[in-house]
Structures are given as C-alpha cells and as structure tokens.
Please model this.
Amino acid sequence: GRRLQGLVDALLETARIESGLMEAQFEPVDVGALTARVLSLFEGAFATAGLDLRVELDDVMEPVWLDETMWETIVSNLVANALKYCYEGSVTVGIDRVNDMLLLRVTDTGIGIPPTEVSKIFDRFHRVGGSGGRSAEGTGIGLAMVKALVEMHSGRVELAVGTTFRVLIPFNGRHDRTGTTAAAQRSGGRTSTLDRIVIESLSWVSAAEVDVPAESDGARGRVLVIDDNADM
Model:
C-alpha cells in the first residue's frame, strides 16, 4: 500500500512540475552534507547487492542555493537508477565545482545505455527495453522528474560518455525566487519520496537474495510461477 501510494504521489508530483504549479524554496545548503545523508540511506541496499558505493564529495565547498527536498529527489533517483542496472563493481557519486556551477556526477560500472536510447532517456514514461535491470517494474518517470527539477534550478542534466549522469546547477542561480514546497513544510524528517525510492531499491536486491528450494525427490511435478513485481 505504501509503495502504491508512493507511485501515485510521484505521478502527481510530475504533473505539478509540468503544469508549473510546483514552486521551490531556495536556501543556502551544505550540499556535501545533504548528499552524504541521502547516500547513507542506500548503504544497506548496496551491501546486499555486493556493490561498492564510492563517495567523492568536496568538503570545503561553499553553500549552494537550492531546494533541499528537490535535491534529495534528484540524488536518490540517480543513485537508485545506477543500482538497478549495475550488477558488479561500483557506483561513484561525486560533487565538484566547475567554474560557477555545481557538478553532481553519478557513474556506475553497469551494463550501460544503448546509443539508440540516449536521446529518449529523459522522456516521461520512456523505459529502456531489454535493459536487463534488477527489476522490470517501474513508471519511467524517475529521470524525467530529475530533468524537470534540475531545470527548476536553472541547471541541466546530461548523460556523459559511458554510464555517467552529470547534473550542473549554478551556485547562485535562483536564490531570488522562493515558494512553498515540502522543503518549507518538512519537520526535519525524510520525505515520503525519498523513503519510497530507498525502499524500492532495497526490494530489488533483497529479491535477488532469496534461495531457490532444492528440487523435490518426489515423483510429482512442480509448477513455477514467476512475476517480476514483488508486491504481486
């Protein structure tokens, strides 16, 4: 029920963004500390999957004007996407400064994205066919939401060579605009969107750890029904 509610919320949030009804609460944020806090929530999923989560954050970077809740959604969606399509090796999340821009990069050693799909990867509801991820379920709105939220920060997101997503946001691009969002309404806890993404990521790797029962010695046959959606 919580996961279904989360999916409905994600669809409604996407609709609000595209209709221009969502505003951001820009404030100076220690983006390194905020990003590290988000990444810490994924440590269990990466440990279960046998993957390394490598963090390369600039600890001395100046505060960045951004919406805290939106940044959580951007980071968590990109990290969850990397986890979904990476079976061995590592996922590296880094933050750097490039001139007057904040650079967030998420790189994985996974299967990569076919060249024919690159131009459509940020389209709403588009899903890469035959991609071999940990789960076939999904709505195809995660990366579209990332793109929309980044653009609300006067930034851009791009898929670099290989399997590296790059998010570029100006340090002082939008601090002249304020509004009412979950960032202004939150009471210090995690948002439901962040919780939903973390829980979904855990379900992908936990399902892969389930032991398959040994074949019975009896004469009767066995019917195995397989569904990729854990809830079903």
Q: What stands out?
A: The radius of gyration is 19 Å. The CA atoms of residues 24 and 152 lie 8 Å apart. DSSP finds seven helices and seven strands in the chain.
